[in-house]
Structure of Palmitoyltransferase:
Amino acid sequence: MPPSDAANRNATRWAIRIVPIFIFGAFGFSAYAVVAHLCVNYLYRQKYQYGTAIALIVLYAVFYLLTLWSYLRTLIIANTDPAFVPYTERRETAEKERKAVKANRKAKGGDIESQESWLPADTDPDSPGLEAFYSKDVFICESDGRPRWCSLCWNWKPDRASHSSELERCVRKMDHLCPWVGGMISETNFNFFTHFTFYCTLFLSVCLGAAAYCLRLQQKEGRSLDGIIVAVLVLAGLFGFFAFGMTATSARYIFQNITNIDVLRQDQQQYLAIRVPLDSPSTPTYWTVTYPLTTSTRAPLGRNGEPPPPADGRANVPSESKPTPPSAAKRDAAARRTFALVKTELGENPFDLGPWRNFKSVMGNGPLEWLLPMWHSPCCNHDSIHSDYEFGPLIDELRKRYKLPATDENAEANGGS
């Protein structure tokens, strides 16, 4: 990695450590300025507006506590459970060795930040982690039928995972690295981040309203400008506008079931591996691949190592995978599955469940989850036997578009509908 990139990465890491300190300082300043200076000293003691002062203090306290609670929840999760994709055992060993070398070179004044451990896609048919994909009914893949590969983490990327260059790890449903909350916004804290921006908007609105009301009273009295009131107006107005914008953006992402990464990739098509009946042959419009892979499998490979299929989708049908050899484990023989490789159109989102279900997949299933930053999003649960994340109606549309043969499960579902 070039030195400039390493320097930028170090600067980012320092920023996510330092910025939260200023946020806590802002919380402290607002408590003094709004509660002590404006509500107690001015409205309550000087103007004798007891009802107004108490009402503002109550509103301030409610939104202050909710904002602080949401912020702490987001900050803590960002640093303790940032949705990292676990390393494989081999990568974990290499990382420990790299850290040991880093400590040694740092002591000698060397630059280890420019060192990267890059590894091409694993072509081993028994590559660790593949079974987590082909045991599902649908998964995101490359044009070769294999999952996406991270050459820096030496791992197969789960659906919706992306590699963070700042954190040097793959992150599930990564949205963005936010210095304001001291870490990564991902599937484990996006709902808490949304709580924070929403309550922060309301909290700053109370601060702005209190300061504006006191400023109007002081202008009627002919007083000179109060520096603290001006500071509250400027800070609350500026950060309130920013928080409102972030709340609106987060709401849009939630209802569309997308992230910042998805927005950046909206002009790209995605390959999906959709399960079809075992040993289904390839056709002129789609390829098929059977897992577990064997050394004799000739699948159309793409970004993972070999040429992708032609753009028109018509090519020679590759030879089918040979049956699992007798020496293979019985478990692998029983786990054989065939997948059709299909491609979405530009702008299609296979994870779009519809606005209401999208909302519940992130914010939860009940009012308490929607209002309080207590529980992780339902989308953090990856125990489904069908897919890592729930797919939307587009999967059925792709089955019809490519005329995929139905599995027994699909036939039963369609027959019962």
